[in-house]
Specification:
Layout lengths: L4 E2 L2 H18 L4 E5 L21 E5 L2 E6 L1 H11 L5 E7 L7 E7 L3 H16 L7 E5 L1
Antiparallel strand pairs: 1-7, 2-3, 2-7, 3-4, 4-6, 5-6
Helix pairs in contact: 1-3, 2-3
Length: 139
């Protein structure tokens, strides 16, 4: 991989697909995609808050996406899953100390389709604008 961020739909999807391929080729434990804090709803990187809102992220390992979300975000994620029949929720965990849920989505498809899913899942689940910037922070 030569680039690690993108801020348009085609660029993000290509970046995410390349990250999936790099993850598979390297046999890494997982890959992590994070939304740029400047584009994340409720996150102001310049406000000096000691406890800012978490930046949306998704991890992928083997054939599973992993993300944290609130109940409303989970409902939006379920709507996205209707567009991707090759993806399904495998497990939802609701730790007592957390306000939301950790969701595991099994996804069996090629890297391009997985890149499309990651982009749609991030954008729809977290209510991001079309031009949100995302970073592949770990492969």
């Amino acid at each position: 991989m030569t680039r690690f961020d993108a801020a348009d739909t085609a660029g993000r999807r290509k970046l995410f697909a390349e990250a999936v391929l790099a993850h598979r080729n390297r046999g890494s434990q997982f890959l992590t995609i994070e939304v740029d804090p400047a584009d994340a709803p409720g996150v102001d990187p310049d406000d000096g808050d000691d406890d800012p809102a978490p930046v949306p992220w998704v991890q992928f390992a083997e054939k599973t996406f992993n993300l944290d979300c609130t109940d409303a975000e989970l409902d939006r994620l379920k709507d996205v899953l209707a567009e991707f029949p090759e993806c399904r929720i495998d497990r939802i965990e609701r730790p007592d100390e957390a306000e939301g849920a950790n969701v595991r989505v099994t996804a069996r498809s090629d890297a391009n389709r997985l890149g499309q899913f990651a982009d749609r899942a991030l954008q729809a689940t977290y209510g991001l604008d079309d031009g949100y910037r995302a970073w592949v922070t770990q492969v």
